[in-house]
Amino acid sequence: MIRKAIHRLLFVLVLLVPLQLLAQEGAILFGRPWSERLMLLLLGGALDLVFVVDFVVRLYLSMIRRRGIEYLGKGRGWADFLGSVPVFVFLSGPVLFGILAGGSVPFGSGQVLHALLTARLLQSLYLLRLFRLWKLFPPVKNQISDMRLRHIGRLVGLFLSAALVAAFALTLSMLPQQAFLPQSAALTAPSAIAQNIADIARAAGGAADDRTATLRRSAVVRQVVEANPALLVLRYAGRNAYTQMSNERYRAEFGPGDYLYGVSGEYAVFVDVREFHAGSAATRVQVVLVVILGMILIGGVYGKHFTSTVRDPLRIVQRGLADPSYTLPVHIPSAYAQDEVFRVAEHYNTGISRDRDGL
Q1: Contact 105, 256 (CB under 8 A)
Q2: In the sheet that 231-236 helps form, which strands lie side by side, from edge to edge?
Q3: Nearest-CA neighbor of 214 among 231, 202, 229?
Q4: Dist. CA 18–CA 182, nearest whole Å
Q5: Going along 250-301, which residue ranges are E strands?
Q6: Contact status, residue 156 vs residue 298, Cβ threshold 8 Å
Q7: How far is CA 145 from CA 149, 151, 314, in A?
Q8: Distance between CA 258 and CA 211 in Å, rounded?
Q9: pLDDT, tens only, 326-335
Q10: 239-243 vs 259-264, strand pairing mode
Q11: In this structure, what are the phi and psi dihedrals at residue 271, rounded to the nearest 5 degrees?
Q12: What is the pLDDT of residues 288-300, one digit of tens each?
């Protein structure tokens, strides 16, 4: 009873995986407030922890029974591992521990572009969660009654593997190009922006004590903002010379990974990188939608086709051979009459027809 309840709970949690992933990436894509994104991160981390525990328990029980290798292979333990451990170790685990410890989310807060590109590559690991959808089609024994589930499960596994390999390959191939995008110039080194501001201030003239006032002059500030539209805050000597919005909005809309910080002398800048993260989130949303659509087509359209053209005819033949009183013939569609399954069924129909006629 308890075991069935656990399996049902895991089934429900598996269904939540793509929904949570879509919500998490959609929140990044549409610039939702940090509080909403934080709740989705915590939910994802909790799901990751549950599936890590599920993998460890399954592996432990299989090793006790001396079937550890079998579980990791035929039992799809490798998919359970990929769908839980890397995501928790490299992403949601540090996020959870950082938040619980009162720290910050560690990814996306570096000062150079390669840190952002590394964060983008790591965040693509979130797609590994989709391997959990394979649990909807668990491995079964070689019986006709389970044949549909077994074949569809294998197709789903191949589809998930191909889709995720393609997604990671696409991410890797795009990283060198993204390093040279125009919007990446502001992300390469915020310190360079601060240095540029310092140069502007010196060119504007004035004594050292007047530099803050000089920066506040509309012409200088306008020049800096126009050159760097992602600039959030410009500071000199610990005081704000320019800010794009109020502190309340910063606290509500920005998380630890949504900005970069650069310093040059007494000048400091904060740069908005949410658009950079939104680009990778859009790619992940597309992958999730493709996977969901593919699984619906495989499980629904192909599953129905497999049932009517393979499983049901074989079940009728099997029952007819086991029970002589069972005389239901197999319906043979004209479009598939030459398929091996229906050629066998045709011989079966001929046999029961003769038995019925007493020949």
Answers
A1: yes
A2: 239-243, 231-236, 267-272, 259-264
A3: 202
A4: 33
A5: 259-264, 267-272
A6: yes
A7: 9, 12, 10
A8: 29
A9: 888 899 988 8
A10: unpaired
A11: -115, 135
A12: 999 999 988 988 8
